[in-house]
Amino acid sequence: MKIRLLLIGKTEEEFLKTGIRDYEMRINRYVPFEIVEIPALKNAANLSFGEQNSRECEMISKRLLPGDVVVLLDERGKEMRSVEFATFLNKQFISGNKNLVFVVGGPFGFDPAFKKKASSILSLSRMTFSHQMVRLFFTEQLYRALSIIRGESYHHE
């Protein structure tokens, strides 16, 4: 299985880029992993939140392939402990699907119609994080889940 992380906009802060690259390399030791940055909308300030969501979801949809299992990262999604996330991930591996795609939307989340198309919607926390920080938090949690699946000592419980 290949895992992709789709993001709206570029990661801005160098300290985040460094952390994300570190986890990206670690993840690739376990499974093919790719981060795809989708350019942010131009003139977004001139669009309503709904228009912005709709256009961002259109751009995301263009990056999805038939058969992709799509998991949205959204603050209103299902919360999981790291061990539960590892179990979720392992079930995806066992299912025989080829591509697992996690998506971080823009600042106003996802269009309701797009949410209905997702296989799952997960939340990293009840707290709100910047979209820039979520990228680092998610890559760390993905690495943690993979290390749990492999029975390695990164996660302590």
What does this structure look like?
There is one protein chain. By secondary structure, this protein is α/β, with parallel strands linked by helices. The chain has a five-stranded parallel sheet. The protein contains five helices and five strands. It has one domain (2-41, 49-149): 3-Layer(aba) Sandwich (Alpha/beta knot), CATH 3.40.1280.10. Helix content is 43%, strand content 22%.
Kindly, what is the distance between the CA atoms of the first and last residues, rounded to a whole number of angstroms?
27 Å
Contiguous runs where pLDDT drops below 50 for at least 5 residues = none
Main sheet: strand order: 2-1-4-3-5
Q: Going by CATH, what is the homologous superfamily?
A: SPOUT methyltransferase, trefoil knot domain
In one word, what is the shape? globular
Name given to the CATH architecture? 3-Layer(aba) Sandwich
How many helical elements? 5
The CATH class designation is Alpha Beta
Q: Return the CATH topology.
A: Alpha/beta knot
Largest sheet: 5 strands, parallel
Q: Name the beta content range.
A: 15-25%
How much is the average pLDDT? 92
Rg over alpha carbons: 15 Å
Number of strands: 5
Order of helices and strands: EHEHEHEHEH
Q: How many domains make up the coordinates? A: 1
Helix/strand class:
alpha/beta
